[in-house]
Amino acid sequence: xxxxxxxxxxxxxxxxxxxxxxxxxxxxxxxxxxxxxxxxxxxxxxxxxxxxxxxxxxxxxxxxxxxxxxxxxxxxxxxxxxxxxxxxxxxxxxxxxxxxxxxxxxxxxxxxxxxxxxx
Length: 119
Known about the structure:
With 119 residues, this protein is mostly beta strands. 7% of the residues lie in helices and 50% in strands. Strands 1-9-10-11-2-3-6-7 form an 8-stranded antiparallel beta sheet. The chain has a 3-stranded antiparallel beta sheet with strand order 4-5-8, with no helix packed on it. The longest helix is centred in the N-terminal third of the chain and has 8 residues, at 8-15.
């Protein structure tokens, strides 16, 4: 299936169907690539006052649940039960039937279902 651009409302409706499932997040920012696994409990959003330096995004997608980040040798637990993806008014949302792609000014986030068992 070709990637389809989504509104934030359509993105939210589709990704909420993944609650209770294990997901993989691939974060690509500049020359940095991180892989994160999350046992997705639920999805929420936050709104913060924008930082003066513009680095803190006004909005964030919160993927709530137990998570681990892939290190060179192993997975390490995330420090809290929420993985945050900063969002902007200009963020783009795509879905190809298997993977969500969120493109922001800072980077690209790919979210897909994990084929692995429980975390």
